[in-house]
Specification:
Blueprint (H helix, E strand, L loop, with lengths): L8 E5 L9 H13 L4 E8 L5 E5 L2 E7 L2 E3 L2 E3 L1 H13 L4 E6 L2 H10 L5 E6 L7 H6 L1 H10 L2 E4 L2 H6 L10 E3 L13 H13 L4 E6 L8 H8 L6 E6 L6 H8 L5 E5 L3 H10 L2 E3 L11 H8 L4 E4 L6 H4 L6 E4 L4 H12 L2 H18 L2 H16 L1
Parallel strand pairs: 1-2, 1-7, 2-4, 7-8, 8-9, 9-10, 11-12, 11-14, 12-13, 14-15, 15-16
Antiparallel strand pairs: 3-4, 5-6
Helix pairs in contact: 1-15, 2-3, 3-5, 7-10, 8-9, 8-13, 11-14
Length: 382
């Protein structure tokens, strides 16, 4: 098994990969970290540029396919079709791990799938926003799930309430997402920056929200909630600008307690997470299947405020009245009231924050994910 030529082979097909830092990208990298010492692995993904490239990340070959356009918010690339075909034919993977949603990679994978490869579908989310697109590709998705040997879901909630997964329960396996705790360690420099943030906001309750500025993250609702709060409460909103940015900026105009930081580096992010009092996770749809950023905020002993999202793992990660507070979906006033409740009761903040960290340490650390995924993939290789 130590001989490179005798190692069994795994191909991951995913929308994007490191250095992209979204939730799916982090899980694809965690899978690679879990199995790369035992199996030969290759990854094919899109790139936000137009040109193809091949590089190496931690010993794994990454084929990045240039993206010419998007359809139904999903990247589309002719070279992705060619590379999936080539890798399946030449690399001859024993297992293909296909990360969804993306109907186009579904189609390419089904078209070129070999009988010698087992197909594992990694189900991150239903298609929620693009209703027309979901209906167009429904038969394709059913065919794909029929072909799949196993379907990995990130929480039991999603299996129960997903239109698709509820029909394939016998194929589903739950492997909760994880945080990379070694990347969240607070060093002395970060601690100094955290203290500066606290000093700048002396006598205030610091709230932090993290995520790409897209509709399902619900940041428009979060900003509206901040508009109902006194200036004692300040929100730092962190994340890459995207299709919701214009609306977020418009809603935050005139609000002195909302600071839009945009995309910041990992060290600065850790400083804000460490400095804050409340972690505001405002996602509103099942596009948010789990919430890695939520688990990261909780790891810093921060109570979370979340919306109820039927069938999402968000309410599996944050437990109402244990690790934080859950309020009715899109209820701006209820969200503001939850922030006030935590802001006015330090003992409650500390209690929920401690429970939040304990939950993450017991369920969502990378070591558990590695163990769970290795056990799963080894069993599938038999």
């Amino acid at each position: 098994m130590d001989d490179h030529s005798t190692k069994k082979r795994v191909l991951q097909i995913v929308n994007y990969y490191y250095p992209e830092l979204g939730g799916i990208e982090k899980i694809a990298q965690a899978i690679s970290n879990a199995i790369s010492d035992q199996y030969e692995e290759k990854i094919v993904c899109f790139t936000r540029g137009k040109e193809d490239s091949v590089d190496n990340v931690e010993g794994v070959e990454i084929t990045r396919c240039g993206t010419k356009l998007k359809l139904f918010s999903q990247p589309l690339s002719i070279s992705m079709a060619k590379n999936i075909k080539k890798l399946i034919k030449d690399f001859k993977p024993d297992i293909i791990i296909l990360h969804l949603p993306n109907p186009f990679t579904e189609y390419y994978t089904l078209k070129h799938l070999s009988s010698s490869s087992k197909l594992i579908v990694y189900w991150h989310s239903d298609i929620v926003k693009q209703k027309i697109g979901e209906k167009i590709f429904r038969k394709l998705t059913v065919r794909l799930l029929d072909k799949a040997t196993k379907i990995v879901a990130t929480s039991p909630n999603y299996i129960t309430d997903s239109y698709y997964l509820s029909q394939y329960k016998e194929k589903c396996v739950v492997i909760p997402n994880c945080i990379e705790e070694d990347k969240l360690v607070i060093d002395e420099d970060t601690r100094i920056e955290s203290n500066k943030i606290r000093e700048k906001n002396k006598d205030k309750i610091i709230c932090v929200g993290v995520g790409r500025q897209v509709p399902y993250k619900g940041f428009e609702y979060l900003v509206q909630s901040m508009g109902l709060l006194p200036d004692k409460y300040v929100l730092y909103l962190i994340g890459r600008e995207d299709e919701s940015t214009a609306a977020i900026k418009r809603l935050s105009e005139g609000l002195t307690n909302v600071v839009l930081l945009g995309e910041i580096d990992g060290k600065a992010l850790k400083a804000y997470l460490n400095a804050c009092d409340i972690f505001c996770f405002s996602s509103i749809t099942k596009n948010e299947a789990f919430g890695i950023a939520l688990a990261e905020g909780m790891y810093y002993e921060k109570p979370a405020v979340t919306y109820t999202i039927e069938g999402s793992g968000v309410n599996y990660v944050n437990i109402n009245n244990v690790t934080g507070i859950e309020v009715p979906n899109k209820d701006v006033k209820a969200y503001a009231d939850a922030i006030i409740k935590l802001g006015e009761d330090k003992e409650l903040r500390d209690k929920y924050g401690k429970a939040a960290k304990e939950r993450v340490e017991k369920e969502f650390l990378s070591k558990y994910f590695y163990d769970n995924f290795r056990r799963f993939i080894n069993n599938e290789m038999k």
